[in-house]
Amino acid sequence: MMAKLSQEELLEQFETLTLIELSEFVKAFEEKFDVTAAAPAAVVAAPGAPGAAAEAPEEQDEFDVILTGTGDKKIQVIKVVRELTSLGLKEAKDLVDGTPKPVLEKVNKEQADKAAESLKGAGASVEVK
Known about the structure:
Largest sheet: 3 strands, antiparallel
Low-confidence stretches: 39-56
Distance between the termini: 58 Å
Radius of gyration: 25 Å
Strand content: 5-15%
Order of helices and strands: HHHHEHHEHE
Strand order of the largest sheet: 2-1-3
């Protein structure tokens, strides 16, 4: 029986293979162990898949800041939207005119709270989801 190779030694062996040899090895490995090597890559490529959300409910770490109303200081709100985003004047105005609209998406709690505070300070109504 062959001595067991460490993970490092196995990787060194694979480094010497051509892509074609490596591809043939993967096919042989899949057949021998009745597995599919591509399955984990597919899961990694689609983190937003519905199945991922159905797993254990973890603490939310990404928040969306939604502008729900502008109040009577629309120009101030547009200025704050421009400060928070990289939008130009027209894009920021369109966003403000089209409320409810997300101003920031997938930001951390601290960023979301600061953005909401700034927008509320300008007279806007804001929702953090």
